[in-house]
Specification:
Elements (H helix, E strand, L loop, with lengths): L5 E5 L4 H12 L3 E6 L2 H10 L7 E5 L5 H15 L4 E4 L15 H29 L2 E6 L12 H21 L4 E8 L5 H10 L4 H11 L8 H12 L10 E4 L6
Parallel strand pairs: 1-2, 1-4, 2-3, 4-5, 5-6, 6-7
Helix pairs in contact: 1-8, 3-4, 4-5, 6-7
The protein binds nicotinamide-adenine-dinucleotide (NAD).
């Protein structure tokens, strides 16, 4: 159980991050929810009936370092410590050949998926190193393990997250802090609906069928499939696991 553990979750308003809020709260953790929009965070708190004193809603843009520093500090000031950091917010960018890829979309991917993850690591690691304990889980992707056509910038950013994970794990392994990455295959969230539409705007369901056919277990993941591995990596059961890159992919990269 993660009773009274303090957990920061980025990208908490939707999809995988939102499911993490439920998973950690159900295990008795105190949760700090980070996302762009306060109204969306309030909806999550309401939906899961989070109890006063057990959660914080902290709107922040992870691409702005000062805002990252603030959400980390506010969580520490409120709950006194940070045990787990689910460094998860990400964007898919556009679906396009490299030759057509808009520079603006590339910037957005770099800002959210690389800089946002980096700033989170930088500020959470400082506190965890002082505490001499903590578990960080970065969300990479199967796009961090293999190429996928028309998602070059996204894949590049997800490979970067694996590099960051391994460096951070090595830098802080002697300080009682663990840093791991998860690599989900396609998960049933808004992000996949957007990618499917980008791959085949006339028939997004056909794109979904094509992706499903790539997955040996024969289906997309549900957010809970992903969160079970996050809860494990966050827990003491994973105390000897750091610098690991865990494919949660129904066999796609096997
Ligand atoms: N859905 C999939 O198939 C899949 C597969 C592999 C990896 N992932 C990764 O999982 C993570 C979550 O994806 P999801 O499917 O839940 O997507 P999603 O779009 O449903 O949720 C992402 C959340 O991140 C938030 N976010 C985006 N930019 C932000 C910023 N600058 N600051 C703060 N919050 C921001 C969004 O507002 C949103 O609530 C992402 O890193 C994604 O790349 C998703």
């Amino acid at each position: 159980m993660l009773n009274n553990k303090v957990v920061i979750i980025t990208g908490a308003a939707n999809g995988i991050g939102k499911e993490a809020v439920k998973g950690f709260a159900n295990q008795g953790a105190k949760v700090a929810l980070i996302d762009l929009d306060m109204a969306a965070l309030e909806k999550v708190a309401q939906e899961f009936n989070l109890q006063k004193g057990n959660y914080l809603l902290l709107p922040a843009d992870v691409t702005i370092e000062e805002q990252v520093e603030q959400y980390v500090q506010k969580t520490k000031d409120t709950f006194g410590k940070i045990d787990v950091f689910f460094n998860n917010a990400g964007v898919e960018g556009v679906i396009s050949l490299i030759t057509e890829y808009p520079a603006k979309a590339l910037d957005s991917i770099v800002n959210v998926n690389i800089k946002g993850i980096f700033y989170g690591l930088k500020h959470v690691l400082r506190l965890m190193a002082e505490q001499k304990s903590g578990s960080i889980i970065n969300t990479s992707s199967i796009g961090g393990l293999r190429g996928m056509p028309c998602t070059s910038a996204y894949c590049a950013s997800k490979y970067a997250i694996i590099g960051l994970t391994k460096c951070a794990a090595l830098e802080f392994a002697g300080s009682g802090v663990r840093v791991n990455a998860i690599c989900p295959a396609m998960v049933n969230t808004r992000m996949m609906r957007s990618i499917e539409a980008g791959m085949n705007s006339d028939d997004p369901d056909a794109a979904k069928d094509q992706y499903t056919n790539m997955i040996p277990v024969g289906r997309y993941a549900e957010p809970d499939d992903i969160i079970q591995s996050v809860l494990f990596l966050a827990s003491e059961k994973a105390s000897f696991i750091t610098g690991a890159v865990l494919a949660v992919d129904g066999g796609l990269t096997a």
